[in-house]
C-alpha cells in the first residue's frame, strides 16, 4: 500500500476541510433563512425584519464596519399588499391547498363569498356577481404587489381541477400596508491601499413572505443562496483584506420591484462613481448547466476577462452572455453608470417563486467554484 508523506496528507485534509466548511456554512445559512422562523422573509410575522437582523449580526461577527460609521441598516418605506389571515378556497365543494393547489393573485382584494361560476374561455371563469376571477394555470408562480385591485383573482393548478368548475367558496383576507418599513443591510471592509476605490457585492435577502397564516414561500434559491455566498465572501475578505474597499449590501424589497436597490442608488451611502465593479448575486443554488451573466454585452471587456478566468480554471460548464435587463438589483446601478454584472446559475431544481423552493432541493453544484470565480475576477480587477 502506498503511504502519503504525513505533511502532504495533512495539507490535503486541511484543504478539503476548508472547502467543506464553506459549503457547510452556505447550507446552514440557506436552511436558516428558508426556515419557518423567517416566514418567507416577507411582510407578515416580522419575517423580513428578522432576516435583516440575522444578516446584520453576521456582518458584525465577521468584523465589517458600517459604511456611515454607525448603522448597518438603511431604512425606507413603501406600500405593499399582504395576506396575513384567512386563505381558504373550495372548488365544487373540494378544499384546495394554498400554495400547492391555488394562489391568490398578489394584488387581489380579500373576499368572503360563495358563488356560481360562468365560463369565459378554456382557462377563465368569473363569479356570477363579478368580484371573483378564476384562472387555471399549468404552474403556480407568486409575486408581490404594491397596490390592491377591486376584485379577487384566484389561480388554480390544472392538476387540482378534477371537474368543470361550477361553484367557488372563498374566504381570503388581505391588508394593504401603506408604510411598510424595510432595511438594506450595508457593511464594508476598508481597502489597504486604495480605500476610495470600491468593489461591491449585493444580494437581496427578501422573498415573497406568506399567503395566509399557514403557507409561506421559503425562497431557498431565491435568494437565501445569494445571501449565503455573500456572507462567505464577507468571511473571506474579512481575513484577506484587499487593496480596494469592498462594500457588501443585502437588499430588501427586491421582489416588490427592486425597491431596496432603487432607494440605495437614490440615497447612496458611498459615491457611486467610486464603484469599480459590482457583482449582484441571485439564484446561486444550482449551476450544473452553467450560469448566465446579465450586462455581459454592455461590458464586453469584463466579460472576456471572466471567460478567460473560467477557461483557465474550468469553474463552470459555460457562462452565457445576456444583455441589459431590469431583472434584479444590479439594474438601478447600471442606470447610474456603475459597471455591474448580475450572475445567476442554471440547471437543478425548477422551483421558482413557489412553495417548492426549499433548501433540500438545492444541489449547490457550482457553489464553491462560483466563490473562486468571484474572488479570482476581483483580484484581476484590483491588479
UniProtKB/TrEMBL annotation:
Record domain Peptidase M28: where: 184-373
Family matches, as Pfam families: Peptidase_M28
Domain of life: Bacteria
UniProt protein name: M28 family metallopeptidase
Organism: Pedobacter ureilyticus
